[in-house]
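Re: [ENG-882] Designed sequences occasionally contain unexpected residues at chain ends

Forwarding the minimal case from QA. Structure tokens:
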């Protein structure tokens, strides 16, 4: 092999190695972008989860207040009905 053909072969190998390196770098960039996108999604899901948990706590507290008000109204209605029955029975 002559010096020129040896240099040409070495140049081709170097070019192929550089192409492979470039392809590996591009693949790594794509992977990093995918990981960054997933990290952003995980962060967004965490924020959504926190908001949903807060909303659930608020709704649960409201439901408890409504249940308490409902019980109080039911007791007042029972008392009012008993009073009305007593008045009606006393008039008869």
């Amino acid at each position: 092999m002559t010096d020129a053909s040896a240099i040409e072969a070495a140049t081709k190998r170097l070019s192929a190695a550089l192409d492979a390196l470039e392809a590996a770098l591009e693949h790594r960039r794509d992977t990093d972008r995918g990981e960054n996108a997933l990290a952003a999604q995980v962060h967004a899901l965490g924020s959504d989860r926190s908001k949903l948990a807060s909303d659930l706590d608020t709704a649960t507290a409201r439901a408890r207040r409504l249940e308490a008000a409902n019980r109080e109204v039911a007791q007042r209605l029972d008392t009012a009905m008993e009073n009305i029955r007593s008045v009606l029975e006393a008039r008869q």
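QA comment: On inspection the terminal residues look reasonable. The chain has one helix and no strands. Proposing we downgrade this to a documentation issue.
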